[in-house]
TrEMBL record:
Organism: Goodfellowiella coeruleoviolacea
Record's protein name: Glyoxalase-like domain-containing protein
Coiled-coil portions: none
Cross-referenced Gene3D superfamilies: 2,3-Dihydroxybiphenyl 1,2-Dioxygenase, domain 1
InterPro entries assigned: Glyas_Bleomycin-R_OHBP_Dase, Glyoxalase_6
Residue stretches making up the Glyoxalase-like domain: 19-100
Length: 127
């Protein structure tokens, strides 16, 4: 088996407590002047609202999570071989944690993982 290739994805998700959500959206829209667009949340049952922000070549997702007490940052990671990636990651003790946020209607094969510091990454097989 060849070692998998990993590349950075274009999506960054900022999970924001409900009490700070409106002020955070206003910061990116009104203070920084970024284009901010409210998006559909039907495929992410743990998110009550979301806005997308063009953040250079990336999309920053401002996700309102009603039961969070502090913000969290999640990153997207791509691999050319999900099975090899899982095996490589398992070799250093990193296993899927898909329970962090169930996803619906994804066309790609995916897993949620956490790096050793606990930062969540969406690992997507891109081919």
């Amino acid at each position: 088996m060849n070692p998998p290739e990993f590349t950075a994805g274009l999506n960054i998700a900022m999970k924001i407590p409900k009490a700070q959500y409106e002020a955070t959206v206003a910061f990116y829209r009104d203070t920084l002047g970024f284009a901010v667009k409210e998006e559909d949340v039907s495929c992410t049952p743990t998110v009550s609202r979301t806005h997308s922000v063009r953040f250079g070549p990336n999309t920053l997702w401002l996700d309102c999570v009603d039961n969070y007490s502090q913000p969290d940052l999640w990153l997207q990671l791509h691999t050319d071989d999900l099975d090899a990636a899982r095996a490589t990651l398992a070799g250093i003790g990193i296993h899927p944690c898909d329970e962090v946020e169930p996803l619906r209607d994804l066309e790609a094969r995916t897993h949620w993982i956490k790096n050793p510091a606990g930062v969540v990454h969406l690992l997507v097989e891109s081919g």
